[in-house]
C-alpha cells in the first residue's frame, strides 16, 4: 500500500474512483468538486475529488474552483482516515474546517459515504 498523500497514493485513489461502477452510477447528473487541504508542518497538501456526471476522479492540486473545502492538519486527517475520529466530531472540536457550500455537502451526503467505501483499500 502506498504512503498516504504520496504520488502513488493519489494515483491509486484516482484509479479506484474511476473504476467503481456503483460510484459512477450514483454520481450521474452531479457536478461537484470537493477539495481537501492538509497541513503537514510547513507543507500543505491539496487535492480535489471531482464528480462530473458519472465520472469520479481525484487530482492532486487545486486547479478548479471547489464547491466544498475541507481543511485540517495531518494528525486530524490521519485520525479521520483510520476511523479513530469521525469527520463530524473533528468539525465540532474545531479540528476540521469546512468552507464553501454546506448545502452541496448535505445534498450529496450519500456520495461522501460511498467515497469512504471506495477508498477503503488505501487505509
Walk me through the structure.
By secondary structure, the chain is an alpha+beta fold. It has a single domain, classed as Nonspecific Lipid-transfer Protein, Chain A (2-Layer Sandwich), CATH 3.30.1050. The protein is 41% helix and 30% strand. It contains six helices and five strands, in the order ααββββααβαα. The protein has helices spanning 7-19, 21-26, 74-82, 87-93, 102-107, 109-118, and strands at 31-40, 43-52, 55-60, 68-73, 96-100. Strands 3-2-1-4-5 form a five-stranded mixed sheet. A hairpin with a 2-residue loop joins β1 and β2 (43-52).
Principal-axes shape call: globular
Number of helices: 6
Give the H and E element order.
HHEEEEHHEHH
CATH topology: Nonspecific Lipid-transfer Protein, Chain A
The rounded distance between the terminal residues' Cα atoms is 8 Å
Question: Topology, please?
Answer:
Blueprint: H1 7-19, H2 21-26, E1 31-40, E2 43-52, E3 55-60, E4 68-73, H3 74-82, H4 87-93, E5 96-100, H5 102-107, H6 109-118
Parallel strand pairs: 1-4
Antiparallel strand pairs: 1-2, 2-3, 4-5
Summarize the structure.
With 123 residues, the chain is an alpha+beta fold. Helices cover 41% and strands 30% of the residues.
Features:
Nonspecific Lipid-transfer Protein, Chain A, alpha+beta, 6 helices, 123 residues, globular, 41% helix, 5-stranded mixed β-sheet
